[in-house]
Amino acid sequence: xxxxxxxxxxxxxxxxxxxxxxxxxxxxxxxxxxxxxxxxxxxxxxxxxxxxxxxxxxxxxxxxxxxxxxxxxxxxxxxxxxxxxxxxxxxxxxxxxxxxxxxxxxxxxxxxxxxxxxxxxxxxxxxxxxxxxxxxxxxxxxxxxxxxxxxxxxxxxxxxxxxxxxxxxx
Length: 170
What we know:
Oligomer: single chain
Helix content: 40-55%
Strand content: 15-25%
Radius of gyration: 16 Å
């Protein structure tokens, strides 16, 4: 927690769009170190950390998460509402559990449900592998999209998606 608060304090002195805390990474080495999705298993510590970061950060503060360690929507919603109460301004959801990693299809219906149930924007993440996927998902119930692996592999993904949207809108 201390390192995150110190980093947030330093970043707050810079010109930046915001700070995003990743509580969704399921990489074993990240979880062993207490980061990523490990925060979701320590809810009280996570909420206290967000409160401390919010206290030193005047920029937009957002969090990326997964469904959790189990597929329990009520627990996810409760956690997200607590994050919202501490000043989180956007949540990005990767709709798989921690243990699923990338083994099953992302459950975008859960992203839509969270979008409906929270008062802050909810962005979706998962299974965006092409420009058509990006365009298709942009029509779904979420405030924004996050493309991870596909964007790294194909940095032109967004230009292709824009071209597809322009073609569709003409």
